[in-house]
Amino acid sequence: MVNILLEGYDIGASYLYDGLKKYLRCGMTVAVVAFAFRDDRIRSAADWNGLYGREDGKYYRGIVDGFASYGIIEEDVTFLNYFTDSKEDARDKVEKADIVYFLGGLPDRMTERIAEFGLEEAICCKEIVMGYSAGALIQLAEYHLSPDEDYSEFSYYKGLPLLNDFYLEVHYVGSEVQKESICRVLSERKKKVYATEYGCGAVVVCDGRITLLGDVKEFI
Q1: What is the dihedral of CA 57, 79, 141, 148, to 10 degrees?
Q2: What is the pLDDT of residues 95-107, one digit of tens each?
Q3: Residue 166's beta-bridge partner residues?
Q4: Which of 110, 204, 118 is nearest to 157 (CA)?
Protein backbone atom coordinates (compact mmCIF):
# COMPACT_ATOMS: atom_id res chain seq x y z
CA MET A 1 0.00 0.00 0.00
CA VAL A 2 1.02 3.58 -0.64
CA ASN A 3 -0.10 6.31 1.77
CA ILE A 4 0.42 9.94 0.77
CA LEU A 5 -0.02 12.46 3.59
CA LEU A 6 -0.13 15.98 2.22
CA GLU A 7 -0.04 19.44 3.72
CA GLY A 8 -2.24 21.07 1.07
CA TYR A 9 -4.35 20.20 -1.95
CA ASP A 10 -2.01 21.49 -4.67
CA ILE A 11 -0.72 18.04 -5.56
CA GLY A 12 0.91 19.41 -8.71
CA ALA A 13 3.29 21.60 -6.69
CA SER A 14 6.92 21.41 -7.78
CA TYR A 15 8.16 20.03 -4.45
CA LEU A 16 5.74 17.09 -4.77
CA TYR A 17 5.81 16.24 -8.45
CA ASP A 18 8.98 14.16 -8.71
CA GLY A 19 8.10 12.23 -5.58
CA LEU A 20 4.51 11.48 -6.58
CA LYS A 21 4.81 10.80 -10.31
CA LYS A 22 5.94 7.22 -9.65
CA TYR A 23 2.59 6.54 -7.98
CA LEU A 24 0.09 8.77 -9.83
CA ARG A 25 -0.06 7.78 -13.48
CA CYS A 26 -2.07 8.27 -16.63
CA GLY A 27 -5.07 5.95 -16.84
CA MET A 28 -5.66 5.73 -13.10
CA THR A 29 -9.05 6.49 -11.58
CA VAL A 30 -9.66 8.53 -8.42
CA ALA A 31 -12.44 8.56 -5.83
CA VAL A 32 -12.45 11.89 -4.00
CA VAL A 33 -13.95 11.54 -0.52
CA ALA A 34 -15.39 14.99 0.22
CA PHE A 35 -16.71 14.14 3.69
CA ALA A 36 -14.72 16.49 5.95
CA PHE A 37 -16.95 19.54 5.61
CA ARG A 38 -18.18 21.58 8.58
CA ASP A 39 -21.82 21.02 9.51
CA ASP A 40 -22.50 24.70 10.05
CA ARG A 41 -21.27 25.59 6.55
CA ILE A 42 -22.49 22.69 4.43
CA ARG A 43 -26.10 21.74 5.13
CA SER A 44 -27.38 20.61 1.74
CA ALA A 45 -26.44 19.27 -1.68
CA ALA A 46 -26.48 22.82 -2.99
CA ASP A 47 -23.97 23.91 -0.35
CA TRP A 48 -21.78 20.88 -1.14
CA ASN A 49 -21.91 21.66 -4.86
CA GLY A 50 -20.75 25.17 -4.13
CA LEU A 51 -17.46 23.68 -2.98
CA TYR A 52 -17.03 20.47 -4.98
CA GLY A 53 -19.60 20.47 -7.78
CA ARG A 54 -18.38 20.13 -11.37
CA GLU A 55 -20.20 23.19 -12.64
CA ASP A 56 -19.18 25.88 -10.15
CA GLY A 57 -17.51 24.21 -7.17
CA LYS A 58 -14.93 26.46 -5.53
CA TYR A 59 -12.38 23.65 -5.17
CA TYR A 60 -13.38 21.36 -8.02
CA ARG A 61 -11.08 22.71 -10.71
CA GLY A 62 -8.05 22.84 -8.43
CA ILE A 63 -8.54 19.20 -7.46
CA VAL A 64 -9.00 17.80 -10.96
CA ASP A 65 -6.24 19.99 -12.40
CA GLY A 66 -3.87 18.65 -9.76
CA PHE A 67 -4.43 15.11 -10.99
CA ALA A 68 -4.19 16.29 -14.60
CA SER A 69 -0.56 17.18 -13.81
CA TYR A 70 0.05 13.42 -13.64
CA GLY A 71 -1.96 12.56 -16.74
CA ILE A 72 -5.14 11.57 -14.90
CA ILE A 73 -8.03 13.04 -16.87
CA GLU A 74 -11.05 14.81 -15.40
CA GLU A 75 -13.43 12.03 -16.46
CA ASP A 76 -11.49 9.59 -14.28
CA VAL A 77 -11.91 11.69 -11.12
CA THR A 78 -15.15 10.94 -9.26
CA PHE A 79 -16.42 12.70 -6.12
CA LEU A 80 -18.33 11.00 -3.33
CA ASN A 81 -21.28 13.25 -2.54
CA TYR A 82 -22.52 12.85 1.02
CA PHE A 83 -25.94 14.30 0.19
CA THR A 84 -26.81 12.53 -3.06
CA ASP A 85 -24.88 9.25 -3.13
CA SER A 86 -26.41 6.15 -1.61
CA LYS A 87 -24.19 3.91 0.49
CA GLU A 88 -24.05 1.51 -2.46
CA ASP A 89 -23.09 4.30 -4.90
CA ALA A 90 -20.34 5.53 -2.61
CA ARG A 91 -18.91 2.06 -2.05
CA ASP A 92 -19.00 1.35 -5.78
CA LYS A 93 -17.01 4.53 -6.49
CA VAL A 94 -14.36 3.54 -3.95
CA GLU A 95 -14.14 -0.05 -5.13
CA LYS A 96 -13.70 0.97 -8.78
CA ALA A 97 -11.03 3.59 -8.08
CA ASP A 98 -7.27 3.05 -8.14
CA ILE A 99 -6.75 5.99 -5.76
CA VAL A 100 -8.79 7.21 -2.79
CA TYR A 101 -8.26 10.90 -2.05
CA PHE A 102 -9.42 12.51 1.20
CA LEU A 103 -9.99 16.26 1.32
CA GLY A 104 -9.26 18.65 4.18
CA GLY A 105 -11.63 19.94 6.84
CA LEU A 106 -12.68 18.21 10.05
CA PRO A 107 -11.02 14.79 10.35
CA ASP A 108 -13.30 13.44 13.07
CA ARG A 109 -16.42 14.26 11.06
CA MET A 110 -14.88 12.60 8.00
CA THR A 111 -14.23 9.35 9.86
CA GLU A 112 -17.77 9.44 11.26
CA ARG A 113 -19.24 9.85 7.78
CA ILE A 114 -17.01 7.11 6.37
CA ALA A 115 -18.35 4.82 9.11
CA GLU A 116 -21.91 5.95 8.40
CA PHE A 117 -21.49 4.90 4.76
CA GLY A 118 -19.73 1.65 5.65
CA LEU A 119 -16.67 2.49 3.56
CA GLU A 120 -13.77 1.63 5.86
CA GLU A 121 -13.18 -1.90 4.57
CA ALA A 122 -13.29 -0.84 0.92
CA ILE A 123 -10.88 2.05 1.59
CA CYS A 124 -8.42 -0.15 3.46
CA CYS A 125 -8.19 -2.48 0.47
CA LYS A 126 -6.98 0.23 -1.93
CA GLU A 127 -3.42 0.29 -3.25
CA ILE A 128 -3.09 4.09 -2.99
CA VAL A 129 -4.68 6.24 -0.30
CA MET A 130 -3.88 9.94 -0.15
CA GLY A 131 -5.20 13.10 1.40
CA TYR A 132 -4.33 16.56 2.63
CA SER A 133 -4.66 18.13 6.08
CA ALA A 134 -7.56 16.25 7.69
CA GLY A 135 -7.27 13.75 4.85
CA ALA A 136 -3.69 13.06 5.88
CA LEU A 137 -4.50 12.70 9.58
CA ILE A 138 -7.25 10.12 9.22
CA GLN A 139 -4.84 7.71 7.57
CA LEU A 140 -3.30 7.25 11.02
CA ALA A 141 -4.83 4.65 13.31
CA GLU A 142 -4.68 7.33 15.99
CA TYR A 143 -3.98 11.01 15.44
CA HIS A 144 -3.86 14.09 17.63
CA LEU A 145 -5.20 17.58 17.07
CA SER A 146 -3.59 20.68 18.51
CA PRO A 147 -5.96 23.39 19.76
CA ASP A 148 -7.11 25.73 16.98
CA GLU A 149 -10.23 27.55 15.79
CA ASP A 150 -12.08 24.26 15.29
CA TYR A 151 -10.84 22.29 18.31
CA SER A 152 -10.50 24.08 21.63
CA GLU A 153 -8.53 21.35 23.41
CA PHE A 154 -5.78 18.89 22.60
CA SER A 155 -7.13 15.40 22.07
CA TYR A 156 -6.48 12.05 20.42
CA TYR A 157 -8.85 10.64 17.81
CA LYS A 158 -9.32 7.31 16.10
CA GLY A 159 -8.54 7.30 12.38
CA LEU A 160 -8.39 4.50 9.82
CA PRO A 161 -6.23 1.45 10.59
CA LEU A 162 -3.66 2.21 7.90
CA LEU A 163 -0.59 3.67 9.64
CA ASN A 164 0.47 3.13 13.24
CA ASP A 165 4.17 4.01 13.54
CA PHE A 166 4.10 7.80 13.88
CA TYR A 167 1.97 10.89 14.50
CA LEU A 168 1.54 13.95 12.30
CA GLU A 169 1.31 17.68 13.00
CA VAL A 170 -0.10 19.43 9.93
CA HIS A 171 0.19 23.13 9.05
CA TYR A 172 3.26 23.46 11.23
CA VAL A 173 4.44 27.02 11.92
CA GLY A 174 6.40 26.39 15.09
CA SER A 175 3.81 27.93 17.41
CA GLU A 176 4.00 27.27 21.13
CA VAL A 177 0.68 25.43 21.00
CA GLN A 178 2.00 23.08 18.32
CA LYS A 179 5.28 22.52 20.14
CA GLU A 180 3.44 21.70 23.35
CA SER A 181 1.21 19.24 21.51
CA ILE A 182 4.17 17.53 19.88
CA CYS A 183 5.95 17.22 23.23
CA ARG A 184 2.83 15.73 24.74
CA VAL A 185 2.54 13.12 21.99
CA LEU A 186 6.22 12.20 22.34
CA SER A 187 5.81 11.80 26.09
CA GLU A 188 2.48 9.95 26.09
CA ARG A 189 2.72 7.82 22.95
CA LYS A 190 6.50 7.31 22.63
CA LYS A 191 6.35 7.57 18.86
CA LYS A 192 7.93 9.86 16.29
CA VAL A 193 6.05 12.96 15.14
CA TYR A 194 6.39 14.41 11.65
CA ALA A 195 5.42 18.06 11.24
CA THR A 196 4.64 19.24 7.72
CA GLU A 197 5.61 22.87 7.31
CA TYR A 198 2.66 25.12 6.47
CA GLY A 199 2.06 24.95 2.72
CA CYS A 200 5.10 22.83 1.89
CA GLY A 201 5.44 19.29 3.17
CA ALA A 202 4.36 15.68 2.67
CA VAL A 203 5.03 12.21 4.06
CA VAL A 204 4.86 9.23 1.70
CA VAL A 205 4.75 5.69 3.07
CA CYS A 206 5.24 2.90 0.53
CA ASP A 207 5.14 -0.60 1.96
CA GLY A 208 6.50 0.72 5.25
CA ARG A 209 9.26 2.86 3.74
CA ILE A 210 8.95 6.56 4.55
CA THR A 211 9.90 9.39 2.21
CA LEU A 212 9.68 13.05 3.19
CA LEU A 213 8.90 15.64 0.53
CA GLY A 214 9.31 19.40 0.88
CA ASP A 215 9.78 20.81 4.37
CA VAL A 216 9.01 18.22 7.04
CA LYS A 217 10.42 18.32 10.56
CA GLU A 218 11.03 15.15 12.54
CA PHE A 219 10.56 15.00 16.31
CA ILE A 220 11.77 12.00 18.28
Answers
A1: 10
A2: 999 999 999 999 9
A3: 192
A4: 110
